[in-house]
Known about the structure:
There is one protein chain. This protein folds into two domains: 58-174 and 194-235, Chondroitinase Ac, Chain A, domain 3 (Sandwich), CATH 2.60.220; 242-361, Immunoglobulin-like, CATH 2.60.40. 8% of the residues lie in helices and 45% in strands. The protein is built from three helices and 29 strands. The model is unreliable at 1-39 (pLDDT under 50).
Amino acid sequence: MRSLSVRALALVTTIAVVSCNKQSAVEKLNPDGNAVAATAEPSRDARLLADLFKSAAPKTSFFTVSAKQPGTLSTPNGTRYTIPPGALRRKDGSVPTGPVSVAIREVYSPKDFVLTNRPTATNGQYLLSYGEFFVRATEGGADLTLAAPIAVQAPVRAQVRPQEKVPMWDGDTSVYFTVNGHNQFNQPTSVIQPASQDPGINWNAAPDFALFNPGTGTLDFQLSQLIQWRNCDVFSGTTGPKTTVLGYFNIYNDDTPSSSPEQPSMLFFKPKTINSVVKFFNIILNAPNGFKGFLSYQNVIPVGQQGSFLAITALGGQFYAELKDVTIAPPASGTNYTPVSFNLQPVTGAQLLTLIADLNNR
Length: 362
């Protein structure tokens, strides 16, 4: 599952990077594919919104185990992680001798897709999600690696029964930048550095699958690497004509294009009865008031699709939002897009979190 952003490839050999002639220059890819200097910071309103999301986002579960006999761990969501004896290793390959701390984070629902900025879409096409999983193990604060995979049994929470084999996806929350400068001998050089990815997580298809176990009602798969998001998703399978959706905000924060990594205006789409959330990352350019907002990728939203939009803005320390049920209409004659207008109203932080939670029922 990949986010709606342009693919910021984790492999340095394949990422498109633009450099300049300054002594030290850092550049990256915007969601629209344009290279810009990585100097943006979140605006005050964006930080206010991010702090609210963080307060209600899924919490990390912590466990303390023995590296020699770690056993099986169960999270509050009912997911079971079986760590084989000797699987946890230090980076030099030795077995830890002290207690090991295991941190597990899981994302299962539309509400949590929004709060953790992990939309379930690839190139604008929404996906049916069966969960996202992250595991980290440390000894005395030092990260450990795996010498053998962790077996995972994840309960099926989505309304749609999974197929026998569900594709797995790898994710990273970082993009990579080239920093140009000089080394200790004053010779030109460059290094690759990671930084937080603005549009959320970058998902790439993995070669393995999760297998549905009808006896336990779980999807069973393996984690072969720590400190990396993994998830189980399938394509929605929608067919028929598609359109480009433009979402117009009556209240829009003009800091949105330059605020990074959080943004003070956002637009999400939850397809009806589908465990999925699409985030619109593309910003409408050069728009007058009343037409500022976001648009989907070109021709990716199914005409006739029922669902719910959640439009959010933080402006001047005040939250604004609208949760709107829609049926995606075909473009009007002579046009190539479907407009949806939003009348955002003032809400408290608690009211906004209630609207986000309501996505689970749509």
